[in-house]
Amino acid sequence: MSAARPLTTMRTIAVTAALPLLLTACGYGSKATDDGKKTAVAAGAEKLSADEVKIGYFPNLTHATALVGVQEGLFQKELGGTTIKASTFNAGPSEIEALNAGSIDIGWIGPSPAINGYTKSNGKNLRIIGGSASGGVKLVVNPKKIKSLQDVKGKKIATPQLGNTQDVAFLNWIAEQGWKVDAQSGKGDVSVVRTDNKITPDAYKSGSIDGAWVPEPTASKLVAEGAKTLLDESSLWPDKKFVITNIIVSQKFLKEHPDVVEAVLRGSVKTNGWINANPEKAKAAANAALEKLSGKALAADVIDPAWKSITFLDDPLASTLSTEAEHAVKAGLLDKPDLKGIYDLTPLDKVLKAEGKDKADDAGLGAE
Length: 368
Known about the structure:
- It is built from 14 helices and twelve strands.
- It is an alpha/beta fold.
- The strands form two sheets. Strands 1-3-2-4-11-5-12 form a seven-stranded mixed beta sheet, with helices on both faces. The chain has a five-stranded mixed beta sheet with strand order 8-7-9-6-10, with helices on both faces.
- The longest helix is centred in the last third of the chain and has 20 residues.
């Protein structure tokens, strides 16, 4: 799914080509948008140790914790007089680059680029400090051409990018069927067609692909065009949960401003609680945020099924990130990464304890 030499050393792929290949769940390109907006703070609100916190996330549903938390002022409430400056990204590598450069301090991101960013810096760049979302990935197909899972053999199936989270998941599933596909070319018993999510619906309509293993809302956009859901990836995981979005922080910011990091995590936990208690209001808030960012809200026949397939949670599901990295290694795309230290869940556990919730598990991958 997502990923001694660091993760960026993809076999047979030049380092200069590696960055665009390890995108987050819904990468739509490589540009970042500096929204240039700071959230309004209440008069007289006390600042924390930093005047502002720069956060980054994607304008899509698997990042709804950030979308809703900013939209509803839930993060700002916890930050007091410390303002939020938000930037949105369309690809994992650009968000990691922004974190490295100090353009953002905290980000919502998928497992592949989180692993990539950590291993590329030899464990000196980021930490995963919390979870945000699980699920929201489906195999959707043309029902006239594919009626069963066995019918996938011999067909053309899209994934977002070579080496991204969904691409590795699909390659792993193919291997489990006993079929053979060359991971680099995508050729074999199934044709794996790497296609940008934003053009996948058009590719489906034109007939150039027979289906896609994709995240939401792309999966529901295809269904709105007549495709059928053949497999929900959550059915392949224990308890039907797997990490699709993490929260990361630069180690420098975590060290210098632990109170700000803790406040953002409190905002995230409270936002997830509000989302789960008010799913319809939260869905509307997420769609309103998307409309502000992209200029267009999602149609009801897209957002309704997409929203239902995503679980918003605080647990980073660390054991599934480790499994995703193993799948990438098995697919022949990545060398075995050393992920020890990628998590620091100390601030999250403090927040969870205050909320009367159990500590999160780092699956043995926590910082010393």
